[in-house]
């Protein structure tokens, strides 16, 4: 239950925030992330020695609107189901305001948002053999999740983000799904795994998705107007051959998607 075998995977997300101390505290207490480094303007938080979220302070940045292009949610992938179960019990005991819970067939997912409105998913994958239909295509759906059954898998108390937790995928609000596919598929090399109405899901190495792109709130959204809170940079990590191929297509390793969000590619292990 990892994305590490994929040629390209999510490294971390960088978020512009108005309240750096408050947002740092949220990601520590709600998600159990460790502060790996911090100063007056930046905090890097993660699991083990791996950065998952970088918070960049800008008290004057305007708050992102609901219908703008940008972040839909950052999805934190747990290494196993018992870890998600422990976190669920922690969320209940902490009275975190959850926004939903879904069985996506490929995964079990729980949704919430941080204090500045950035969406968050905490999830675990089902075994890969369960992802496919009879034709070998990835099958996804949005069904109700049995939270009591999930909680029963907990094998102890929550003690913080477990080693092996990663950002499994990032789901974006975009202005046009076709344009999103042209960038994330044709430039960055992700394969389209499946579609929902108004959304595309793209993955690398057979993963069900590293990138989601939807127009549910943001149809025809234009260029992002920075500085603004929310997703400031998406950092991807790629193996050496894939990184070289993307850089050749894109003209470099720091590029922007069609709505202006910077995407940075780094080598795996760097």
From TrEMBL:
<dbReference type="InterPro" id="IPR037523">
    <property type="entry name" value="VOC_core"/>
</dbReference>
<dbReference type="GO" id="GO:0004462">
    <property type="term" value="F:lactoylglutathione lyase activity"/>
</dbReference>
<protein>
    <submittedName>
        <fullName>VOC family protein</fullName>
    </submittedName>
</protein>
<dbReference type="InterPro" id="IPR029068">
    <property type="entry name" value="Glyas_Bleomycin-R_OHBP_Dase"/>
</dbReference>
<feature type="domain" description="VOC">
    <location>
        <begin position="9"/>
        <end position="125"/>
    </location>
</feature>
<feature type="domain" description="VOC">
    <location>
        <begin position="166"/>
        <end position="270"/>
    </location>
</feature>
<dbReference type="Pfam" id="PF00903">
    <property type="entry name" value="Glyoxalase"/>
</dbReference>
<keyword id="KW-0479">Metal-binding</keyword>
<dbReference type="InterPro" id="IPR018146">
    <property type="entry name" value="Glyoxalase_1_CS"/>
</dbReference>
<dbReference type="GO" id="GO:0046872">
    <property type="term" value="F:metal ion binding"/>
</dbReference>
<dbReference type="InterPro" id="IPR004360">
    <property type="entry name" value="Glyas_Fos-R_dOase_dom"/>
</dbReference>
